[in-house]
Design goal:
The protein is α/β, with parallel strands linked by helices and about 190 residues long. It is built from six helices and seven strands, in the order H-E-E-E-H-H-E-H-E-H-E-E-H. Strand 1 and strand 2 form a beta hairpin.
């Protein structure tokens, strides 16, 4: 066996072990997410006018609390724009959307203006909201939240959790769940 082949085998083993560790971490991290039926911790974001909006003020209505990694990145932009494009349907259904990331208020302001995002955005710079919902980081030791969505019911409890989110379809999945829980067909 040549030195190059040995090196490739070592690199392959490291990649395999790293991949298995990430899979194991992903499976374990789902266990730390707030479960269905748990009381949703309060969050406060700012709407398009800069007015504070609290989750606790939405009691009696459904709310979405979705975590995303970073403003102005490809997947996060697709997800934010999907929620934006469906925002009229969410408003009609009486659902408030809260978008949460570790980015600052200034970053959110720029992201909101760039893509005309109408919903409250939560600047969780300390990670307190991420921790309260049990949302893991994308990688250990990195202060960037994983992509996870929670649907909060009118009773203030977690009604659904999407631990593995496809940013393109998540908004429609959430609308479908709201319609199902309300006992109405989704439109």
């Amino acid at each position: 066996m040549t030195a190059r082949m040995k090196k490739l085998m070592v690199v392959g083993a490291v990649v395999l072990i790293g991949g298995l560790a990430l899979v194991a971490r992903g499976l374990a991290s789902d266990a730390s997410l707030l479960p269905v039926g748990a009381t949703a911790p309060d969050v406060e974001g700012k709407d398009a006018a800069g007015t504070p909006v609290k989750l606790s003020a939405q009691k009696g209505k459904f709310a979405v609390v979705y975590f995303y990694p970073k403003d102005e990145t490809a997947g996060c932009t697709k997800e934010a724009c999907a929620f934006r494009d469906a925002s009229d349907k969410f408003v009609k259904a009486g659902v408030t959307i809260f978008a949460v990331s570790r980015d600052s208020d200034a970053s959110h302001k720029g992201f909101r203006e760039h893509y005309h995002l109408p919903f409250p955005m939560v600047a969780d710079t300390s990670g307190a909201v991420q921790k309260a919902y049990g949302v893991p980081s994308v990688l250990p030791g990195v202060d960037i939240a994983a992509r996870v969505t929670f649907l909060v019911g009118p009773d203030g409890k977690i009604a659904r959790v999407w631990p593995k989110v496809d940013p393109v379809v998540n908004a429609n999945e959430v609308l479908g769940a709201v319609a199902e829980l309300k006992g109405k067909p989704a439109h």
